[in-house]
Amino acid sequence: MVRAAMIVMAVLPLRAAAADPAGQQTYQAVCAHCHGSRGEGSSRYQKPLEGDRSVVQLAELIRTTMPQNDVGLLSSNDAQAVAAYIYDAFYSPVAQERNRPARIDLSRLTIRQYRNSVSDLVGSFRGQPNWGAQRGLKAEYFGARNFRNDKKALERTDPQVNFDFKNESPAPGKIEPHEFSIRWTGSVLAADTGEYEFVIRTDHAARVWINDNNRPLIDAWVKSGNDTEYRGSIFLVAGRIYPLRLEFTKAKQGVDDSKKQKEKPPPAKAFVGLLWKRPLGAVEPIPSRQLSPNSAPESYVCTTPFPPDDRSYGWERGATVSKEWEQAETDAALETAAYVVRHISELAGTKDDAGDRSQKLRAFCRTFAERAFRRPLSTDETKVLIDRQFDSTKDADLAAKRSLLLVLMSPRFLYREVGASPSPFDTACRLSFGLWDSIPDQELQKAAGSGQLASKDQIAKQAERMLADPKAKAKLRDFLLRWVKADQPRDLGKDEKKFPGFDAPTIADLRTSLELFLDDVVWSEHADFRDLLLNEGLFLNGRLAKFYGVQMPADADFTKTKLDAGKRAGVLTHPYLMASFAHSSESSPIHRGVFLARGILGVSLRPPPEAVAPLAPSLHPSLTTRERVVMQTKATNCLTCHGVINPLGFTLEHFDAVGRYRDKDHDKPVDSTGTYQTRNGQMVTLNNARELAKFLAASEEVQDAFVEQMFHHLVQQSVRAYGPNTLADLRKYFVANGFNIRKLAVEILATTALQGRDENESEYRSTKSETNSKTEIQDSRRQ
After folding, report:
1. CATH says 137-292 is which class?
2. How far apart are CA 535 and CA 104, in angstroms?
3. Distance CA 437, CA 608 (A)
4. 21-99 maps to which CATH number?
5. What is the DSSP track for 108-152?
6. pTM for the structure as a whole
7. Residues β-bridged to residue 157
8. pLDDT tens digits, one per residue of 89-138
């Protein structure tokens, strides 16, 4: 009868008036055989009646589409009475809270949390990288084939490595053009998690080290043949900083015959470039914004594959434990322990032949366990995890490996809040996993241990500090990419004849353009959410400018500019999203409407009963895309959802399948008018994308949906588990603070960090007791 939803994705709708008893009677007589006596579903319609429509919207839907085989059976008054009963009895979030109280679930670490945690766990013994404010790499230029300090002629910061020296000197007057060497050092920030391909392009000798100071990722130091491109791959984690060193020399390697030559030949040409291919990108010179001249310690990266986390609720959840997951966490523990053992002398601050090596390793393992468990060890834990392992063997390295494996495979590391009582260390964990998807750093642990996480203000102060970390910036960017449904790989390939030049590099540049726009809004002074919808700025480089008809130099870097002034609207019309929500040759109002309804307005839409291919334009060459969509979805059973989807999607029809503005579609003027019925029953008419953006920016529905989705992304629990007023209170805070996205993130964590799983709930105590018992059993088995 109405759209079902697995989760509520909007603010609490308008409260219905006291339900008319006739509504319940009508529901039981007409609706219950399909939807169940309490809206729980039936064999005919299995999903429960839960959602985010208001009573007005429900009544209109019921009146115009139900009962499915006898539309029009119910009068307007009947439909209103049924809607009021459904809403109050089981449909609305308040009713759901009353009928099925949500609770804070025990959860394991997600894949992202696991990888970040082990990286920070190992990295805590090496010191933190200093990203700094300066971009680019430290460059040292030498007037020789080697890197002797007495031959250093120049030191500076290069924005990136992409040079064509031709047959000239890189520093005229300081370095001869015949023979010179350059060393670039610093660090690189990973933008995504996944496999990166690094590329060196040069006609001379070069090698590069990425996150390994001993073994080059690419070694083309001794050249043979005429190759000028060399590649190497490495797995990196988003938001993390890795050391980088690139060496280049314009000289023959192995034999120095320069002294034998009576006359120097003319200088040879030389070029060198350092490029990468991001997991979702194309090969490009590593941009300056991803580079720092500051050095960074090596970072451990866990590459063990895990089965995907559950995302059925709209956010990543560590809710399922399968045999595949248990095997993966075992393999990951073995991988991590092996890495630590290989580097244990460095990490523990000792040497292989040191007399106090055993004591140093014992102390290291204790600290490792405390940081892994995110709290001090108890006396019993110390005996089991540390003392028993070192007392049972004279081989300190073997004892350390056993201890490490016990810690890494313990539920106290793999699960969050396993302990029996709430503590400030749990508060620190909620804050660190919320903003970093990782364990607390030492400053946060110190605050927990000294009672400095006891109030909301203290938590907010820590959260503001933590926002400056690249891991927090990566998490907020990831949230915004999910909000606009751009977090998963998409095939943006288009008809080459209709859209020549829309190739893989252009698509990769569009992705970068979107990310730069999101970052620009979030990290601006006001971080105003409304700018995401209303800001007309668009980041273009030379390649994108050419494709979209903007005058810029061909080699121009990304610059914020305006395209189609007065016609675009933030992310809503960004070419990457317009291309994402489109077919290969035509726009797709349906895909765009679903994006607007689900992602931006937070409307729950049930999946279509069956997959239906869009009508081919060639079958109706005289029809516009809008006309074809109307023709295909005019059936009554389609209008249940398409009555919302289509009118929203039509407002973006001025943008074609690659996001270029157009006035005509199939030689007819574009009709971009649309409508939307708000939860209070008002029908809003929208004439174009700008009017859509203005409506959405001022819409409480949109604000509520954004707040709720950010809450779920950061906290990874249902917002209803924190009380029926939490969402409404957060939205009020959001509005009162100028829609500041960063302040909202801080407020969400400050609101939830002090609230753990309910100790007074009998079901929770039972679950907790069972979990603790399993923890003890698993620990003892692994010993």
Report:
1. mainly beta
2. 37
3. 35
4. 1.10.760.10
5. BPPHHHHHHHHHHHHHTTT------S--SEEEEEESSSS--GGGE
6. 0.85
7. 138
8. 888 877 776 677 678 888 999 999 999 999 999 999 998 899 999 999 99
